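Researcher: Go.
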Amino acid sequence: MAYGFVIGPESAFGIDAYRWTPLHASMDGWVESLALAAHARRWAKTVTKITGKEVESLGLGGYEPVPEVQGLTDTWWRGRDSLIAIYRGEAIGLDAPRCLEAHVYSGLDEWGLHGG
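Model: Structure:
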């Protein structure tokens, strides 16, 4: 891999690549992000991967941040029937805009959006 995962200043979880890039404010946030990705992947009717500059055109109006993931450069957003994960960490840490990525999990019901 082009980087390593590290615990950085103030217990942030991130990557050490071209430069230190915090992904989540803590290890707990990173674990929550992994759990949410597994949950969303299981319950979404469709999953769409968006890369590069197209990620910036995602409209997040009507979405709220998911605070449990403690996202810094990698963030999650919850909408009416979908979740969006935006992964900026590698793009920033490697100075590689082509690594910008988003996953849109659509067709979620209340269980899919929040779990139990």
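Model: Helices lie at 27-43, 89-93, 110-114.
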